[in-house]
Write a structure and sequence with these properties.
The protein contains five helices and five strands, in the order βββαβααβαα. The chain has 129 residues and is α/β, with parallel strands linked by helices. The radius of gyration is 15 Å and the shape is globular.
Length: 129
Amino acid sequence: MARSRILPICPCAEGSSYLAAIMDWHTRKVLAWRISNTLEADFCVAALNEAIHKFGPPEIMNTDQGSQFTSFAWTDRLRRSGVRISMDGKGRYLDNIFIERLWRTLKYECVYCMPGRPDQKRRQASGNG
């Protein structure tokens, strides 16, 4: 089962960045990820497309009920790939415990501890700095 979730990173006065990742629950490996400065579904679908291209479609894709994951672009891509869609119930934080642990690690090791301007932190964390 693959898992997808969005993490807001580096909220600041200039705006926020958002990180979407596709994770394999069995291996806990991040299969694909994308950063965006908007919460449109496009960057999530791009990560999904990369993961499917590299590793093939998962049997089941589990997400939260964010608008990116309920969008036509996301659900249509999954349906066209023959993937069953699963979404967490409201308040079910344990449903996504593996990816929440990844977000905690990223926040503490790559975002909170980085000196410098917020936009510089985003570039460094994404490997573009």
